[in-house]
């Protein structure tokens, strides 16, 4: 019988990340003014992006309206041809 305890191989080179609980890098990142300015820039970017998407959608709507108008004209022309004039 084996009376000696078996040892498992130990993982070599395992490191743990240590985080500080104090201030993060730089006092500028913690200032309220910086956070407000960053949020304002983000909001401005989002607003501009939404306006761009809205303009594209409006252009697509106009194109579909024009297409619908052409199809309606074609349908009216076919209808007028098919009905005999009395």
UniProtKB/TrEMBL annotation:
Coiled coil (residue ranges): 47-81
GO molecular function: ATPase inhibitor activity
Highest taxon listed in the record's lineage: Eukaryota
Pfam families: IATP (PF04568)
Keyword Mitochondrion in annotation: yes
Signal peptide as annotated in the record: none
Subcellular location: Mitochondrion
Keywords, alphabetical: Coiled coil, Mitochondrion
Gene3D superfamilies assigned to the protein according to its UniProt record, in alphabetical order: Single helix bin (1.20.5.500)
Entry-linked InterPro entries: ATPase_inhibitor_mt
Any single Gene Ontology cellular-component annotation: mitochondrion
Function: Inhibits the enzyme activity of ATPase.
Family: Belongs to the ATPase inhibitor family.
Protein name in UniProt: ATPase inhibitor, mitochondrial
Lineage: Eukaryota, Fungi, Dikarya, Basidiomycota, Agaricomycotina
